[in-house]
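Duplicate of #3305? Posting structure anyway:
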């Protein structure tokens, strides 16, 4: 009987959050249809407010530590499709994403309105000039440009070695490179659910069933830490290796036990973040 009640509560939570998320995504799409952004930077600023609302509706508690980046490049570990929503909820930024995201229903169109730079996973050298040009234009917006150099999502057990391609743009445009680390935790009373399988999205996990499980979780928390000290490196090899080492250290320092009571008051409100 107790198990049946828990399952029913899970389904109710997941259904209500799914509906809230869909309504907000549709509202965001209408907003952008009626008022097309004049630039990628304007779109990123406006999507920031919507992402803040959407992640709240999804039941995610968010704690942010460290100074928010104001410009240049930012790199992070990559765990889930949630990462993009959360970073956009924290601070307006230009995202770099795999090209497949552009074809996702609704969400892909919204990311395009927000000035997202799309790159081919394992792209051919012939695509490099276009990507480098798009990155240069993104840096000129005055917003931080965030990308995930692991090139894929993981189960959170480690920070993978970084792919070096996009680090060319950091050196070519002489922008500072800063790091961020993201970790998820959930309450213990979630049955057999785990962060690795029910929050992190990796391998051949199907998006729909995974999202339903994720939205039904109790006490889903995200902890993001920004490091203000720029990463040094004279070439893309040392730059990527130094950034990966820093993020691995930052990620390990985000002890899940210490996040039992997230301080949501530290999350900047949309109107404040837009003014940065």
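Output from current build:
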């Amino acid at each position: 009987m107790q198990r049946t009640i828990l399952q029913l509560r899970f389904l109710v939570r997941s259904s209500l959050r799914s509906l809230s998320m869909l309504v907000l995504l549709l509202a965001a799409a209408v907003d952008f249809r009626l008022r097309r952004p004049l630039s990628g930077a304007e779109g990123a600023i406006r999507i920031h407010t919507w992402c803040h609302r959407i992640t709240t509706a999804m039941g995610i508690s968010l704690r942010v530590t460290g100074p928010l980046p104001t410009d240049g490049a930012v790199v992070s570990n990559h765990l889930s499709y949630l990462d993009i929503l959360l970073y956009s909820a924290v601070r307006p930024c230009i995202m770099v994403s795999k090209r497949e995201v552009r074809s996702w229903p609704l969400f892909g169109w919204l990311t395009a309105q927000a000035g997202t730079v799309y790159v081919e996973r394992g792209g051919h050298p012939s695509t490099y000039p276009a990507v480098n040009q798009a990155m240069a234009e993104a840096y000129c917006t005055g917003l931080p440009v965030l990308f995930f150099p692991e090139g894929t999502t993981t189960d959170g057990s480690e920070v993978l070695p970084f792919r070096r391609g996009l680090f060319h743009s950091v050196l070519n445009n002489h922008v500072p490179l800063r790091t961020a680390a993201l970790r998820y935790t959930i309450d213990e009373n979630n049955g057999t659910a785990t962060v690795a399988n029910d929050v992190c999205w990796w391998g051949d996990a199907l998006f729909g069933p995974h999202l339903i499980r994720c939205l039904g979780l109790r006490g889903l928390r995200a902890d993001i830490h920004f490091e203000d000290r720029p990463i040094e490196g004279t070439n893309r090899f040392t730059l990527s290796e130094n950034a990966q080492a820093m993020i691995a250290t930052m990620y390990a320092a985000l002890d899940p036990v210490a996040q039992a009571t997230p301080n949501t008051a530290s999350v900047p409100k949309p109107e404040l973040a837009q003014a940065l």
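Confirmed duplicate; merging threads. The mean pLDDT is 89. Strands lie at 61-65, 73-76, 94-98, 117-119, 145-147, 177-185, 221-227.
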